[in-house]
Structure formats: C-alpha cells, structure tokens
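Students often ask why we bother encoding 3D structure as a string. The short answer is that it lets us treat folding as translation between two languages. Here is a chain of 272 residues written in the first language.
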Amino acid sequence: MIGFWLLAPVMVAAALGILFTRKAVHAALLLAVVMIGLAVMYALQDAPFLFAVQIIVYTGAILMLFLFVLMLVGVDASDSVVETIKGQRLMATVVGLLFGAVLVVGVAQVTVGAVTGLDEANAEGNVPALAQLLFSTYVFAFEATSALLITAAIGAMVLAHRERLTPKVGQAERAAQRMRDYVDHGKHLGPLPSPGVYARHNAVDTPALLPDGSAAETSVSRTLTARGTVRSAPALADDVTVLSRQIGHDGRRDGESGTTGNGRDREPGDQA
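And here it is in the second language, the structure alphabet:
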C-alpha cells in the first residue's frame, strides 16, 4: 500500500499533464511516466510477467517509437481547436464523467484488506498461472481480442493505402521538371544548401549564408522555423563579418585576386 500511495499521485499528475501540455513530445514523456508507474504497481502486486511486458513492450518499444517519430518529424503547425462535430466537447465531457464514475464505483468495491497481492494465484509461478487462465478459462476472450487486433491492423493498412493516380516519376522526368522550373520561374537547379554553409557552425539550427552574407531561409527545416529555434540574425553577425573579410568585392577570397602586390595584373610570363 505504501508503494501505491507514493506512485498514485505521480501517475495522476503525469496523466493530467498529458491533457494540458501543448507539445506532443512532452505528452509522450509524461505518458512514459504513467506506464512506468503502472509497471511498478504490477510488480508490487506479484505480477512479474506483466511488469516485464509493460516495460519492454509498451514503454520500451511502442512508446519510444512514438517519441522518436515525434522528435524526428516534429509538428509544423499547432492543433486546430475548431470542432468538426457539433457537441463534440459536450459528449467528451459526459463520457469522461461516466468513465470516471465507473472507476470510482469499481475501486470503492475493493476493500483495503482484499489487496494482498497474488500469492494464492501464483502458487505454481506467475507465468504458468497466467498461461493457465488465458488458455483455459479466458481462451475465448483471448482469441477474440487477437482477432480484433488483427482486424484493426488490416483496417489501418486499408485506410492508409492510397491508389496511384499518376504514373511514377523517374529521375529523368524530375530533371526535366527542374529545367522547366528554372526556365519559367528561375528556380535554382541544384539542391538546397545544407545548414552551416559559409558559416562557422554546421548545426541544423544555423542557416546557410549566401555569398553576400545574408541567411538562406531554405537551408533550415520548416519545423525549426515554426518552433522559433533558428539562430537569429544578431547571432550570425560574427559569421557575416568573418565572411565579408574572407570574400572580396568580386567574389574571390583573399590571396586569389589575381593581382600582384603593386596592384598590376599578372602576365602569363610573370613569376610569383
């Protein structure tokens, strides 16, 4: 009981944080706190198999996959707060209150003295006892749940599948399209500049500097721009100063101006 009263407030606070946080990454981290606390509660109730499954499968695999995807992909825009279904918030509030009432009633029916662990059920071991229940008493519910999960996975694949309406574009077609864009709109033919080009930092939040010293906006991910984590112009002032010293007026670096010390252009027969 001591472990429950220590973990329960932390789990409830983390669950409330999931509802009120605005960043998806923070919500995923708070969900990890809830899952880890649930795993510890399984261990306190003498259920080592569920403890291991909760840590390895849910927290260690599925949730971390969600977290890595959120960190790599990011969120370009904030979530819309416009209701697409009339009365959506009212229905969600009513269903949430009903679910909370069911939980309160269920917990109220359990007395403090009845929570003594699973010593009797685990007399022959936790894993054998769990397998005996799953494949004997609850075999129909177990198989029905398996069929439901498989059906949900197939349904998600069908819904996510998109038919190809146009022929697949090859490398030759892409090159031709780039040439047309260059002729019609003056779009640059080459790839986008990578972060840190002509700069002293190669971090992803450092925009590339053009030969004139200005920052290339296309060199930084739109996600970082939306988050406001791109280095500002004052932070690039030192880079612009150094770049201006290194590049001359005609675009060539110092020492490559093609003139001698007295300012006269070198002739082919002159020696350095």
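Translate back mentally: Residues 249-272 have pLDDT under 50 and may be disordered. Keep this in mind for the problem set.
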